UniProtKB/TrEMBL annotation:
Residues 1-26 are annotated as: Disordered. It comes from the Eukaryota. GO terms for cellular component: nucleus. InterPro entries: Tma16, Tma16_sf. Residues 16-26 have a biased composition (Basic and acidic residues). Belongs to the TMA16 family. This is Translation machinery-associated protein 16. PANTHER family: TRANSLATION MACHINERY-ASSOCIATED PROTEIN 16.
Length: 180
């Protein structure tokens, strides 16, 4: 049970001498309980939607954090960053290949296959225009990314850059609108 409903239930129980099990269907107290329950459900739904929108950004940072970890948390040059971006974009290739093999000839692609193909295409387009990543090209920024523990609040504090497929890197803002 979420916070608002618990608080309301506790207040009503306190008012009624400790029992909340016998309320009239249209009483003020039952309406308060219903309203608190609906509010909690709405807040949970919003939190789930926000988490779903934020997940691709967190996954991207985690991928680059692992790439830094493999290189002993040393700052990366543009070539190493491009290699990590390429690995990130093509991480679904194996699953996509298996889905294509499993499909009978002449049959349409499955929903999962279409979704993966769209995702890879969107990532490749973003890479051509400028792929947003945390800045790992300097010592202090690489340390910040290496120390990131997975919280959303610290992501906004990280400096971000956009790297194009031609190898240009430029400063960028935090992708607060989400990625993909």
């Amino acid at each position: 049970m979420a916070g608002s409903l618990n608080k309301t239930r506790k207040q009503i129980a306190k008012k009624r001498g400790g029992e909340v099990n016998a309320l009239h269907e249209k009483s003020r107290d039952s309406l308060r309980l219903h309203k608190a329950g609906v509010r909690d459900q709405r807040l949970e739904k919003l939190a789930a939607a926000r988490s779903k929108k934020e997940q691709p950004i967190a996954d991207r940072v985690a991928h680059f954090q692992q790439g830094l970890d493999r290189r002993d948390n040393q700052p990366l040059d543009v070539g190493a960053i491009q290699e990590l971006i390429h690995n990130f974009i093509h991480q679904y290739d194996e699953e996509l290949g298996e889905l294509k093999k499993a499909r009978r000839p002449g049959r349409p692609a499955s929903a999962r296959e279409d979704l993966l193909r769209i995702k890879v295409t969107a990532l490749e387009t973003e890479y051509r225009n400028g792929f947003a990543i945390p800045d790992v090209m300097s010592e202090e920024n690489a340390k910040l990314v290496a120390d990131w523990e997975g919280s959303w609040s610290k992501l906004a504090a990280l400096p971000w850059i956009k790297v194009t497929s031609s190898g240009q890197a430029r400063k960028a803002d935090f992708p607060s609108k989400g990625i993909n």
